[in-house]
Every structure is written in structure tokens, then in C-alpha cells.
Amino acid sequence: MIKIAPSLLSADFAYLKRDIDRISTADYVHVDVMDGIFVPNISIGVPVVRSIRKITAMPLDVHLMIDRPVRYIKAFADAGADILTVHTEADTPEQITAALEAIRAAGVRPALSIKPRTSAEALLPWIRGISMVLVMTVEPGFGGQAFMADQLPKIRAVREMIDRYNPGCELEVDGGIGPDTAGLVIEAGANVLVAGSSVYGAADIPARIAELRKG
Ligand SMILES: O=C(CO)[C@H](O)[C@H](O)COP(=O)(O)O
Ligand SMILES: [Fe+2]
């Protein structure tokens, strides 16, 4: 069962309710949080997640592209996140462990992401205790970038790692996913597809979501 997580980065922030209603046939709402330090862009933060929580029952898949995320886990959990994803590159291993423990303690699903230049092995210390892995298929920071096909072997390696150590764990991919690339990442083992520009840029959004789900 393939899940689709449209990214609000490609929505119109002045019409968020309208743009969330438009993706009601999807599985997760993907919320990109950027701090201008971990990535060279600033997006949205805790108050926006809190407001989104009030207007949708869809699971909120919050992708934290922020430095030292342990500082903000409780705030995002209290704001209503269902999944909180932190980056292995965003802090020391000890503090990543602390962030994942804080996510679990808050009753939220813990997830871990790796950037394109980070190897699958970087996930090994945490793979048994997480609910989802997010493999970036663009350099994080901006929507609308081209899919990096050189990430496909890594998606396969992460799928093998998940099947071996934590079979219930989901494998999400993010960046440049559209009708031309969905099949490639599904074949490599992904089961959750983030898509921003290809969903919000489509003339018929429910049809595009169905198309991506089929791969
Ligand atoms: O995390 C992200 C960027 O850092 C976004 O989720 C991602 O880029 C989605 O946008 P698109 O589907 O247009 O590539
Ligand atoms: Fe994202």
C-alpha cells in the first residue's frame, strides 16, 4: 500500500485550508519546517502547525529541517504533529538519540532523515526504534528541484535495512517526486511518497495523487 504525502511547501500559505482540503484523498499532510540555518531557506514553524491541526484530521507529517531539533520537539508535539522527522546531520549522535526519545515520550511517531550525501549506514544506530525513514532525493531547502536518480541505490539499501531490523518501519522519499519518478522509488522500496510541486501544480489534484500511488 503506497501512501502519498503532499508537501504544503507548494501550497499557497494565504489559502492553507483550501489547499489542505484539495489533498483530502492523500494519506499524510507533509509540513516542511526550515530554520534558515540547517537549510538555506525559512518556511513555517510551531504556530502554523497548531493552526493546521485545528482544520484537518489528516495525519501531520512534520519534516524538521532545523539545527539541534531536540530544542523544539515538545513544542511541535504539543502543536499536534503525528510524525516528527529529524535529520541525522542536525546534531551530535547523542542529541539525535535525545530528540528521538523526546518524540517517543510525547506520543508522536519518531522518524529520521538523511540528506543525499549521507549514507544509509548513518541510520544504523537508530533503525530499530524509529517509525519511518525519510530519504531525501534532493538537497533539502526548496521545492521544485530535480529528482536525484543517484539516490536509488541508497533507497534499496535502506529498504534492506528496514526489512532486516525493523519491518514495520515506513520508508518515505522526498524531493522531485512526480509521475516520471514515482515508479522508480516504489520499485526501489519506498512506501510513502512526498510530492509538492507535482501535486499542487496538477490541474486535477485527486487524479495526480491516484497516479502517483500507482507508480
Ligand atoms: O523537504 C522538502 C524540501 O527540502 C520538500 O518536502 C520537497 O522539496 C517537496 O517538494 P517537491 O516535491 O516540489 O520537490
Ligand atoms: Fe520535506
UniProtKB/TrEMBL annotation:
It catalyses: D-ribulose 5-phosphate = D-xylulose 5-phosphate. Substrate binds at residues 7, 63, 141-144, 174-176, 196-197. One of its GO terms (biological process) is pentose catabolic process. Catalyzes the reversible epimerization of D-ribulose 5-phosphate to D-xylulose 5-phosphate. A divalent metal cation binds at residues 30, 32, 63, 174. Its cofactor is a divalent metal cation; Mn(2+); Fe(2+); Zn(2+). Belongs to the ribulose-phosphate 3-epimerase family. InterPro entries: Aldolase_TIM, Ribul_P_3_epim, Ribul_P_3_epim-like, RibuloseP-bd_barrel. Keywords: Carbohydrate metabolism, Cobalt, Isomerase, Manganese, Metal-binding, Zinc. It comes from Papillibacter cinnamivorans DSM 12816. GO terms for molecular function: D-ribulose-phosphate 3-epimerase activity; metal ion binding. Its EC number is 5.1.3.1. Binds 1 divalent metal cation per subunit. This is Ribulose-phosphate 3-epimerase. Pfam families: Ribul_P_3_epim (PF00834). The gene is rpe. The active site is at 32 (proton acceptor), 174 (proton donor). One of its GO terms (cellular component) is cytoplasm. Pathway: Carbohydrate degradation.
